[in-house]
C-alpha cells in the first residue's frame, strides 16, 4: 500500500510528527537528508506504526498515494528552499508541499506563489507545542488553498491536540496566513513570558519570597483565571533545585534571555502595519537589555532607590500583582489579535479570530483557560459585530474594571522599588491612552506644523489647516 503522507526532515520535530501520524494509523513515508536519522527513527520507533523508510526524495515521492502530501520539517530559511527545489520537479499538479517549520510568512507567500505557477499547492503551516506537542498533539495553523486543506485537514486534525473534542487545527487562510498567525502566537508568547517574569521579580523583591515559596504562589494562581501552561511551567521551574550547588535553579541560570527571532519578526511587521503591539515589543527589548552584559555591568553604579527590604510591601501585594498580571496579559493578547486583524486586512486573508482562539486553546505554548474567554468574545455574535478590541468585549472590560486599582498600585510600586516592569507599565499606558478623552497628539500635530508645515486637522470643523508660524501666526486653510 502507498503511504498517505510523507515527512522529510527527521530532526526532533519531524520525527515526532511522523510518529504522531503513524500512531494515528496513517502509513507515513519518512526521509531525511542524512540517512542516519531515518534509520534511527525506524529502529527506535518503527513498532509504533506503519513507516516506509526512504533513502532519496525520488523514493519518497514514489511511496506516496496521489495527490501527494509531503510535510517538510527542516531548519527554516535556506534549507526549506533547498528542499522545495529538490522535491518540486518530482511532483505533479495537485500535489501538496507543507512547510511545518517556523518560516517567515513573507517567504511563505513567495514560495506559495512560485509553486502555484507549477500547479503545486504550497501550505505554510504553523506548528506550536515544541517536541512534546509534535508527538502528543500540537496546535496546527495551516495556510494555503482551501483545496489543499480539504485533502490535508483530516490528517492534520487527527494528530492535533483536542480540547472538548475539538481539534486544535483549522484552515487559517490563503498563502502566508498560517505562518503569520504562528508568528504572532510566538510574539504573544514572548509578552506572556515577560509579564510572568515581572510578576516573579516584583514578588521576590517586594515580598522577599523564596523561589520555592513563589512556586507555590504560581501553583495557586494556576488554579484560577490565570490557569495556563506558562504559569504551570513557571511553578515547576521555580521549584527546581540545582543538583550541583543545592541552590534554586533560577539563581544559577545566567540572566540573559535569548531569542530565535519570531518575536522580533512580530514587532517588525507590526511596525510596518502600524499596529501598536507594545507588550510584545517590550518583551523583545527586555530580552535585548538582559543580553547586554557589558552595558549592564557598566550601569550597575547608577543610583536607584535604597534596596527594597524584604517584606517592604503590604499583605495584599501578591493579589495586586496577580490582578496586574491578568490585566496586562489581556492587553498583550488584545494587541496580538489587533495585529492579526490588520495583517488579515492587508493581505486579504479573512482570518477568523474566534477560530484562531479555538486552535490556541490546546497544544500550543500559550494554551490557557483564558483562550476560551477570547473565543467567546469573538464567537458571541456575528463576525461583523465582533469587538473592535478584545478590551471592549464585555468579559474583558469587566476584568479590567476589577483589576485596574491593583494594576495602578503595582506599576507605581514597581517604580518606587526600582524594579523594572516594562510589560506591566506599557500595558497600563496603552489602556489609559485608549480611554483618554484627549491625547497630547494635538500638541505633536502643532509641533509638526511648526517645524515642517505638515498641517493639521481641527477638532471643531472639517478641513486641513496650517498656521503661519514664522509669519503673523494666522491660520490658513490648505
Ligand atoms: P532543525 O531546525 O534543527 O533542522 C534540522 C533538520 O533540517 C534536519 O533534518 C536536517 O537534516 C535538515 N536540513 C538542514 Br539543517 N539543512 C538541510 C538541507 N539543506 N537540505 C535538507 N535538509 C536539511 O530541526 P527541528 O528542531 O526539528 O525543527 C524543524 C522545524 O520546525 C524548524 O523550522 C523549526 O523552526 C520548527 N519548529 C521547531 C520547534 C521546536 O520546538 N524545536 C517548534 C515548532 C517549530 P540533516 O539531519 O541531514 O542535517
From TrEMBL:
Q: Report the EC code(s) recorded for this entry.
A: 1.1.1.44
Its GO biological process annotations read: D-gluconate metabolic process; pentose-phosphate shunt
The alphabetical list of record keywords is: Gluconate utilization, NADP, Oxidoreductase, Pentose shunt
Q: Name one GO molecular function term.
A: phosphogluconate dehydrogenase (decarboxylating) activity
Q: Which domain of life is it from?
A: Bacteria
**Record's InterPro entries?**
6-PGluconate_DH-like_C_sf, 6PGD_dom2, 6PGDH_C, 6PGDH_Gnd/GntZ, 6PGDH_NADP-bd, 6PGdom_BS, NAD(P)-bd_dom_sf, Pgluconate_DH
Q: Which residues form the active site?
A: 182, 189
**Which pathway does it take part in?**
Carbohydrate degradation; pentose phosphate pathway; D-ribulose 5-phosphate from D-glucose 6-phosphate (oxidative stage): step 3/3
Q: Which reaction does it catalyse?
A: 6-phospho-D-gluconate + NADP(+) = D-ribulose 5-phosphate + CO2 + NADPH
- Residues at which substrate binds: 102, 128-130, 185-186, 190, 260, 287, 448, 454
Q: What does this protein do?
A: Catalyzes the oxidative decarboxylation of 6-phosphogluconate to ribulose 5-phosphate and CO(2), with concomitant reduction of NADP to NADPH.
Family note: Belongs to the 6-phosphogluconate dehydrogenase family.
PANTHER family according to UniProt: 6-PHOSPHOGLUCONATE DEHYDROGENASE
Subunit comment for this entry?
Homodimer.
What protein name is recorded for this chain? 6-phosphogluconate dehydrogenase, decarboxylating
This protein's species is: Planobispora longispora
At the highest ranks, the source species' classification is:
Bacteria, Bacillati, Actinomycetota, Actinomycetes, Streptosporangiales
